[in-house]
Amino acid sequence: MANDKTTDDDKAINDCLLIFITILLPPLGVGLMRGCNSDFWINFCLTLFFGLPGLIHAIYILIKEREKKLQEDRGIEEPPLNPDGYNTAPEKS
């Protein structure tokens, strides 16, 4: 049990540090969460040219990553996309 508590504390500390880094330097926070991909470059440009939209984008990415991790921990899978690209409820027969 004590080991689980330490793991939870470590996760909380990591989350707090990531939030702090994301607020100070949004592109760095996005880079740590998603790597150097399109989200990083979008955030870099938003932060460089506009400031506040970069922070909003970084917080959005942080929230989405956290939701994704919670779903993975609970074993919830995302429903597959329909051919038109939208998630819809299955049709009743």
UniProtKB/TrEMBL annotation:
Q: So which domain of life are we looking at? A: Eukaryota
The scientific name of the source species is Circinella minor
Keyword Nucleotide-binding listed: no
Where primarily located?
membrane
What is the designated name of this protein? Answer: Plasma membrane proteolipid 3
Q: Where is this region: Disordered?
A: 72-93
> Is Transmembrane tagged as a keyword?
yes
Of which family is this protein a member? Belongs to the UPF0057 (PMP3) family.
For this protein, the record's InterPro entries field holds: PMP3
